[in-house]
């Protein structure tokens, strides 16, 4: 009881975000700790071999000489990928609209556009603030494009702009909705709250039935580490339902070398819900003898008291979830522990599923 009280006090000290939120109940199958694949939680052996990629992974072939692939989505819309990152541009009668400028693609983006049209880039849209998606934006400075982003993206970049000229500040911002119209092309931008990060935009080319949402869905693959470094997990999961309200055939997702469909959105939502439910069961099922050795070895060290709870719950959740998704999504085992760890944190402080940190 004293140990549980210690956890409760610690949770109240570091988990104030959960105060006042309704308790969320999850039903899930019983965890079988000895019948699942074990996922290494720590630094990996450089020679470790992960599970083979399933058939859901069907990345386009990137010409090694060019280092990029350009796909024609019809109606003047093109997507560009280097196999790891992807973005989009639209060719209109009066100029080019570009969405994002990943530095891994870098100058290749200029080549891709230049080999498609002689028209200048007149508009550049930032999906969100992260440098891995807009860190090459300065390459378009020569054409002086209008840079468009959510107001939250502008405000955060403004704190960094003296240090990062590679991401010029947007000169057009908005709060809820904005329509980019250039010549005969239209791109609708909308904001539905934080998910991957505050300011992350939903983008939609209705005439071509193409949607763009970056760092939320990873078509054919499990999410990147820590659920794609998610800012707010409940809204990350809800973003899937928002995306499905758009009438699209093709999704440009910002990562991996393949396009997405509504099936990919539904599949990943199912994976995230399974991960959430599995982690909730793991949190509630932690046994004191699993964490007592660490507590006993570190008297008075509150951080050392909390760490085994996060570690044990994340490991159990990772093991069980991975056993169900291997062969369904690509690389589900690679960041299994990190994704479970982010979900455990979300359950504790965002969903208010406290487990051993319950009110006394």
Description of the molecule:
This protein has 360 residues and is α/β, with parallel strands linked by helices. The protein folds into two domains: 2-54 and 272-357, no CATH class; 69-257, Metallo-beta-lactamase, Chain A. It is built from ten helices and twelve strands. The chain has helices spanning 2-14, 107-114, 131-134, 151-158, 225-229, 233-243, 262-284, 288-297, 302-325, 336-349; strands at residues 69-74, 77-81, 86-91, 96-99, 121-125, 146-150, 172-174, 177-182, 185-190, 202-205, 210-213, 250-252. The strands form two sheets. The chain has a seven-stranded mixed beta sheet. It has a five-stranded mixed beta sheet with strand order 8-9-10-11-12, with no helix packed on it. Helix 8 packs antiparallel against helix 9 (302-325). The protein is elongated, with a radius of gyration of 22 Å. Residues 1-40 have low confidence and may be disordered. It comes from Mycena alexandri. Keywords: Signal. Residues 1-20 form the signal peptide.
């Amino acid at each position: 009881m004293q140990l549980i009280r210690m956890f409760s006090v610690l949770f109240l000290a570091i988990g104030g975000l959960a105060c006042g939120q309704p308790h969320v109940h999850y039903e899930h199958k019983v965890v079988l700790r000895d019948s699942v694949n074990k996922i290494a939680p720590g630094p990996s052996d450089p020679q470790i071999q992960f599970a083979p990629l399933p058939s859901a992974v069907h990345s386009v072939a990137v010409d090694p000489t060019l280092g990029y692939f350009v796909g024609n989505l019809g109606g003047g819309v093109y997507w560009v990928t280097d196999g790891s990152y992807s973005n989009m541009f639209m060719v209109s009668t009066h100029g080019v609209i570009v969405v994002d400028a990943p530095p891994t693609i870098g100058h290749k983006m200029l080549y891709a556009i230049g080999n498609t049209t002689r028209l200048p880039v007149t508009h550049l849209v930032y999906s969100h603030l992260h440098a891995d998606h807009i860190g090459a934006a300065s390459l378009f400075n020569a054409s002086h494009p209008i840079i468009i982003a959510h107001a939250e993206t502008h405000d955060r970049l403004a704190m960094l702009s003296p240090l990062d000229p590679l991401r010029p500040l947007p000169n057009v911002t908005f709060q809820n909705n904005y329509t980019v119209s250039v010549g005969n092309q239209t791109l609708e931008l909308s904001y539905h709250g934080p998910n991957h990060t505050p300011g992350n935009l939903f983008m939609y080319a209705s005439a071509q039935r193409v949607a763009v949402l970056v760092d939320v869905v990873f078509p054919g693959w499990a999410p990147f580490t820590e659920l794609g470094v998610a800012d707010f997990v409940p809204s990350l999961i809800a973003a899937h339902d928002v995306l499905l309200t758009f009438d699209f055939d093709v999704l440009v997702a910002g990562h991996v070398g393949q396009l997405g469909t509504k099936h990919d959105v539904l599949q990943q939502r199912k994976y995230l819900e399974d991960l959430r439910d599995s982690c909730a069961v793991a949190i509630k099922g932690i046994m004191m003898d699993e964490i007592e050795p660490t507590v006993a070895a570190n008297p008075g060290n509150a951080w050392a008291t909390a760490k085994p709870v996060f570690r044990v719950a994340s490991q159990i959740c990772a093991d069980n979830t991975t056993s169900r998704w291997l062969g369904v999504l690509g690389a589900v085992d690679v960041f299994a522990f990190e994704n479970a760890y982010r979900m455990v944190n979300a359950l504790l402080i965002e969903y208010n599923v406290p487990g051993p940190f319950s009110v006394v």
